[in-house]
Amino acid sequence: MPHSSSAKKRLRQALRSRERNRAARAALRTAIKKVRTAPADAGETAYRSAVRLLDRAARKGLIHKNAAARSKRRLGNLVSSKK
After folding, report:
1. Residue 62 CB neighbour total at 10 angstroms
2. CB neighbour list of residue 47: distance below 8 Å, 6 or more residues apart
3. pTM summary value
4. Residue 83 to residue 75: CA distance in whole angstroms
5. Residue ranges making up the domain that contains 46
6. pLDDT digit string (tens) for 26-75?
7. Residue 9: which H helix or E strand, with range?
8. Residue-wise DSSP of 12-72
9. What are phi and psi of 42, to 5 degrees?
10. CATH number of the domain residue 70 falls in
11. Packing angle, helices 43-60 and 65-82, rounded to 10
């Protein structure tokens, strides 16, 4: 356990950010899974919401921007092939 007050504060901050990151990552995974399993007519709306979450995650540093771009490209190809 931390002894100094700054280390205690840093621990509190780390715990809060870890929970926030876990929730955001779980929401991102769920959105991607919804795009993959969506029928052809609902795939476009699920894709748009997943792209929004991917862009936000990349902007906040949760995932790398190239990883977000790669995921968007793959999901877009999947949605367009279902049509």
Report:
1. 17
2. 35, 75, 76, 79
3. 0.87
4. 13
5. 5-82
6. 999 999 999 999 998 899 999 999 999 999 999 999 999 999 999 999 99
7. helix 5-37
8. HHHHHHHHHHHHHHHHHHHHHHHHHHS-TTTHHHHHHHHHHHHHHHHHHTSS-HHHHHHHH
9. -95, -5
10. 1.20.58.110
11. 180
Instruction: Domain count for the chain, please give it.
Output: 1
Return the amino acid letter for 8: K
- Angle between helix axes 5-37 and 43-60 (nearest 10 degrees) is 160
- Max Cα separation, the chain? 59
Asked whether the beta carbons of 39 and 74 are under 8 A apart, the reply is no
The rounded distance, in Å, linking the Cα atoms of 57 and 34 is 17
SS3 32: helix
Please give the angle made by the CA atoms of 32, 33 and 34, to the nearest 5 degrees: 90
Residue 75 structure tokens: 């999901």
DSSP string, 39-51: -TTTHHHHHHHHH
- Give the number of residues written for the chain: 83
